[in-house]
Write a structure and sequence with these properties.
Number of helices: 11
Shape: globular
Protein name: Alpha/beta hydrolase
Low-confidence stretches: 172-181
GO molecular function, one term: hydrolase activity
Helix content: 40-55%
Radius of gyration: 17 Å
Number of strands: 9
Strand content: 15-25%
Mean pLDDT: 92
Pfam family, one: Abhydrolase_1
Oligomer: single chain
Structural class: alpha/beta
Keywords: Hydrolase
Organism: Streptomyces lunalinharesii
CATH architecture: 3-Layer(aba) Sandwich
CATH superfamily: Alpha/Beta hydrolase fold, catalytic domain
């Protein structure tokens, strides 16, 4: 097992925000874009292994954790988050294109980054990006987002999260119970920060990101740089479906990683090994 190392940390001023970022290792740049409320810490369990062959950069997306917004009430847009990622590439790898991994909402950012700045990206791996607008039943999921927001306003965070979780489950039903998984210590330790960021995620990220419609024609032209990945336990669930559909549409391989949508958290060692392989292939 790779010995943990302390990353070099920094701050990057971007339009409307200040980003906290962390860097480890040497080699070609690999930018890891977290999903949900994970932030840079979501990759703590895999970053050192990836840093044996790459310069690994992680960061807290704007509005999350240590990345502060000038205006805390600002609407969040995928294009703006993708520009943040581009600014990090310009800072950390100005002379060479980078490799990028995005999980969940971070996968949406990675897809937009590829279509907007293809000259800066040589390979993109996305794990279950919930681009539900590509699905034939997209209208059903627009209604889900409206219900989540209405529930958040009228009843608060936890009922809204329950509504959201039910909508992500197979066939939009009640989420099936999963086998109990003991979280690694690093994941358990960041639970407090994750909970603190949940209101911002539900109110700002979920509606802005899950209504995003990718440029499919542009993605098709760049699909030789794309790797789609899904959780082995996610089959039939909403976040799985867009990646599976796009992989089939573009003729790309669909890779399966351990666990479900949060396999990076529940199975970090196995997930990290497959990610390492995916970005190096």
């Amino acid at each position: 097992m790779t010995t943990p190392t302390l990353p070099t940390t920094g701050e990057l001023r971007v339009d409307g925000a200040t980003l906290h970022y962390e860097v480890r290792g040497r080699g070609p740049l690999l930018l890891l874009i977290p999903g949900g409320t994970g932030g840079a810490a979501a990759f703590d369990a895999v970053a050192d292994e990836l840093a044996t062959t790459h310069t690994v950069a992680t960061y807290d997306p704007r509005g999350m954790s240590r990345s502060t917004l000038d205006d805390p009430e600002a609407e969040q847009r995928v294009a703006e988050h993708a520009d943040d990622a581009f600014r990090l590439l310009e800072l950390l790898s100005p002379d060479a294109p980078a490799r990028v991994f995005g999980a969940s909402s971070g996968g949406i950012v990675a897809l937009h980054l590829l279509t907007a700045r293809p000259e800066r990206v040589e390979r993109v791996v996305v794990h279950e990006p919930p681009v539900v607008e590509v699905l034939p039943d997209a209208a059903v999921h627009r209604a889900l987002l409206a219900r989540v927001q209405a529930t958040f306003r009228s009843e608060g965070l936890l009922p809204a999260m329950a509504e959201f979780a039910a909508g992500l489950a197979k066939d939009g039903g009640t989420a099936a119970p999963r086998a109990e998984v003991e979280l690694p210590p690093q994941a358990a330790a960041r639970a407090e920060r994750t909970m603190a960021d949940l209101p911002f995620f539900v109110r700002r990220i979920v509606p802005g990101f899950m209504s995003y419609a990718p440029d499919l024609e542009r993605l098709a032209a760049l699909s030789d740089r794309l790797v789609f990945a899904c959780g082995q336990d996610s089959r039939g669930e909403l976040p799985y479906r867009p990646a599976a559909l796009l992989a089939e549409r573009f003729g790309c391989e669909l890779r399966h990683f351990p666990g479900g949508h949060t396999g990076l958290t529940t199975h970090p060692v196995e997930f990290g090994a497959l990610l390492h392989q995916a970005v190096r292939d």
